[in-house]
# Entry
Amino acid sequence: MRTKVILGLGAVALPLLLRNLYVIMFLVPDEMEQGPIYRIFFYHLPAFLVAAVGYLTAMVASVMYLVKKDQKYDAIAVAATETALAFAAVNLVTGMIWGRIIWGIWWAWDPRLTWALISWLVYFGYLMLRSAIDDPTERAKNSAVLSIFGSASVAVTWKAIEWWRTQHPGPVLSIRTGGVQKIDPMMENMIYVNFLALLLLGVIFMLVRLRQEEAQREIDALRRYAHAMN
Amino acid sequence: MDERNITFMFYGLAVAWGLLALYAVLLGLRERDLTKQLETLRRMVEEKK
# Structure
């Protein structure tokens, strides 16, 4: 059943991603001041949004694990976290490439960039922590706590462009500016459409990763069973 | 327009697609490895029964 869902989502996501790439490359006009480089923005911002959805999913699953003590929620949390890290990496690296041209530097220690990097490192640490704990219950409990605390860094990253005067551009989406149009509506729509495509891809990654986590748990159980039989 | 502007745009798009493709490949390799492990263990447990 899950394989069919993954294939179905893939059948929608892949054509949409390719269509979006075509539109981004050939149909949207250059930005007046930035030139062609601003097209990176159509991946940079949606990748951040997908990562934020992943981190949020992991946080909710972690809370659910601590409440229900069901390993299913731990599996969801790790699948969401790993997927979010992949998209957050896209966000960070594309931002650096954009910054090299627009700011003349690869990196600035401004609050938004710094907190985005801190979030990435916290969740990378989450994966490292998991690999360091053998007992499944201890692993799930400790990583759930870290995931919940880590979500604070995601919230700070999200609000950084409002709380501080950052080198990073401020909010541009009209849903965050109270309806004020900061960019051309065509550009804003393209961001939403590519967010949808990347979100579908993120859901596919997460479902595949979730299946792998379940397979890993079955492997661990079979190993214990085989060991007990000896 | 600076020629580097368009070059870096390509770098940016390539990195975005490349990182996601790399993660997809890593997922695929892990899937293959886990399936192999699972089949071996299932067979081993069946033989021991």
